[in-house]
Design goal:
The chain is α+β, with helices and mostly antiparallel strands. The protein has helices spanning 6-15, 29-40, 59-65, 74-77, 92-106, 114-125, 133-155, 167-173, 208-211; strands spanning 22-23, 51-56, 80-87, 158-162, 181-192. It contains 9 helices and 5 strands; from the N terminus they run H-E-H-E-H-H-E-H-H-H-E-H-E-H. The relative contact order is 0.22.
C-alpha cells in the first residue's frame, strides 16, 4: 500500500527546516488533531510510552517560557509549543498500568502476557536499566519529537525542535516539579514567516558515504 510517493516524502523533508521565525498563524483544529494522533502513535521501547506531551497555547505561559528558552521567539510566535516530559522513574505500578491497557485494548487474558510483563519488569524495574530510568525515558521522547516533526512536514506544517531551554525552569512554570515527569526537550509547531531567511538556506548534511555504512 503506497500512500505517499518517495519523491514527495523527500521533498517534504527537504522543505522542512528548523524554523527561526514563525507567522502568528494558528494550526486548524483538524490538522492539530492529526498531529496529536501522530504523537500518540510514536513507538517506544516495550511500548511503555514513558512520556507526557504538554501542549502550550496559552500566551501568558508562553511569555513566561521564552526568557528560559534563550529568549527564542519561536516559543511565543508558534501555534502550539509541545513540551516533551520524560518519566523520572520506572516502577511496577507503571508497568502494571501498561499491562492493563494491553489487556483492555486487545481483549486478552492477563495470564497470556504474564511472561511479557515479567520480562519488562526484569529489565526496566528490577534490572540495570532502572538506574537510568529517566535517561531511558528521555531517549523515547526523542523518538516522539522526530515522529512529530516528520508528520508535520508531510502535512506542510512547520516545526522547530528546541533544546535551547532550561528544563528545571520549565518544570516550575508547567507545574511538573512534584510530578513523575521532567522536561527534556520542546518543539514549536506552526507556520514559517515569509521573513525567515533560514527557509532558503541549503540543507547541510554530510555526504551519504560518511553516514551510511553498508555491511
Ligand atoms: C534536539 C534538537 C534540538 C535543537 N534545538 C534548537 C534550538 O534550541 N533552537 C533552534 O533554533 N534550533 C534548534 N535545533 C535545530 C537544529 O539546529 C537543526 O535541526 C539543524 O541545524 C539541522 O537543520 P534543519 O533542521 O533546518 O534541517 C535543534 C535540533 C534538534 C534535533
Amino acid at each position: 500500500m503506497t500512500t505517499l510517493s518517495g519523491n514527495h516524502l523527500i521533498e517534504q523533508l527537504q522543505w522542512r527546516y528548523a524554523v527561526k521565525k514563525f507567522e502568528t498563524l494558528k494550526i486548524s483544529a483538524q490538522d492539530w488533531k492529526v498531529l496529536e494522533d501522530a504523537l500518540i502513535l510514536s513507538p517506544s521501547s516495550y511500548g511503555l510510552q514513558p512520556w507526557k506531551f504538554i501542549v502550550v497555547t496559552n500566551s501568558g505561559v508562553k511569555k513566561q517560557l521564552r526568557p528560559v528558552s534563550w529568549g527564542q521567539s519561536q516559543i511565543e510566535d508558534c501555534s502550539q509549543l509541545v513540551v516533551f516530559a520524560a518519566r523520572k522513574t520506572m516502577d511496577e505500578a507503571y508497568v502494571q498500568k501498561f499491562i492493563n491497557r494491553i489487556v483492555d485494548v486487545r481483549k486478552i487474558d492477563p495470564a497470556s502476557i504474564e511472561f511479557y510483563k515479567n520480562m519488562i519488569l526484569g529489565d526496566v524495574v528490577k534490572g540495570e536499566r532502572n538506574k537510568i530510568a529517566h535517561e531511558w525515558a528521555t531517549r523515547q521522547c526523542y523518538i516522539a519529537i522526530g515522529n512529530l516533526m516528520t508528520a508535520a512536514a508531510v502535512l506542510g506544517i512547520d516545526t522547530c525542535p528546541l533544546e535551547g531551554i532550561e528544563p528545571p525552569k520549565y518544570d516550575e512554570i508547567l507545574g511538573l516539579k512534584n510530578s513523575e515527569y521532567a522536561t527534556v526537550v520542546a518543539c514549536a509547531v506552526g507556520y514559517r514567516s515569509a521573513e525567515d531567511k533560514y527557509a532558503s538556506a541549503p540543507k547541510v548534511r554530510f555526504e551519504k558515504k560518511d553516514v551510511i555504512q553498508e555491511v
